[in-house]
TrEMBL record:
The keyword Secreted does not apply. CDD domains: PRX_Typ2cys. Keywords: Cytoplasm, Disulfide bond, Oxidoreductase, Peroxidase, Redox-active center. SUPFAM superfamilies: Thioredoxin-like. It is found in: Cytoplasm. The active site is at C50. This is Thioredoxin peroxidase. It comes from Prolixibacter bellariivorans. GO terms for cellular component: cytosol. Signal peptide: none annotated. Belongs to the peroxiredoxin family. AhpC/Prx1 subfamily. Thiol-specific peroxidase that catalyzes the reduction of hydrogen peroxide and organic hydroperoxides to water and alcohols, respectively. Plays a role in cell protection against oxidative stress by detoxifying peroxides. Its main location: cytoplasm.
Length: 209
């Protein structure tokens, strides 16, 4: 089920912040009333597509900061695995230089709460708990507003990387709506005309485009 329009699931977990510092009880609740959050999941540390995404978010981190948006990543690896990957050079497949928080979801409960776990726990014929599917997170991304409500979500299958520019576009669309009360049409980007939430507003927009 989609989380859009609902409160983002609450969690407290271990994380690595600033590329090197361990945090015991990291929570997105610290940003409530202060910042929007882009919270994204990736399958595993030390893989192939994942570092391209993490570096891509870091490359645009100033754009997110300009918009007063916090970027937070999460995978089912431990905080120690995150730390090791963060201290591995880029040319060796590492993510050294990434500074935003990376949450450890070793228990997979956060991935499960956000609906991105690529499998599920079940019982076998003998009543033993088994995991069916891939015990990692899909490439889920959630834009959470200052009230802690999910306003946008995207979930890609494991091989499909995401667009950071599209994430920024969605942030801009949310901020435009919040500031001007105008809805954003297909392929809208910052600086373009938006529409009023009325039949007359839509007709006016379409007649000029």
């Amino acid at each position: 089920m989609s989380l859009v329009g609902k409160k983002a699931p609450v969690f407290n977990a271990k994380a690595v912040v600033n590329g090197n510092d361990f945090v015991e009880n990291f929570s997105l609740e610290q940003f409530i009333g202060k910042k929007d959050v882009v919270f994204f999941f990736y399958p595993l540390d030390f893989t192939f597509v994942c570092p391209t995404e993490l570096h891509a978010f870091q490359a645009k981190i100033d754009e997110f900061k300009k918009r007063d948006v916090e970027v937070v990543a999460c995978s089912i690896d431990s905080e120690f695995s995150h730390w090791a990957w963060l201290n591995t050079e880029k040319n060796n497949g590492g993510i050294k230089g990434v500074k935003y928080p990376i949450v450890a979801d070793l228990s997979k409960t956060i991935s499960e709460a956000y609906g991105v776990l690529a499998g599920e726990y079940d019982l076998d014929e003998e009543g033993n708990s088994v995991f069916k599917g891939e015990p990692v997170a899909y490439r889920g991304l959630f834009l959470i507003d200052k009230n802690g409500v999910v306003r946008h979500e995207l979930i890609n299958d494991l091989p499909l990387g995401r667009s950071v520019d599209e994430t920024l576009r969605m942030v801009d669309a949310l901020h435009h709506y919040e500031e001007y009360g105008e809805v954003c049409p297909a392929n809208w980007s910052e600086g373009q005309d938006a529409m009023k939430e009325s039949a007359e507003g839509v007709a006016s927009y379409l007649s000029n485009h």
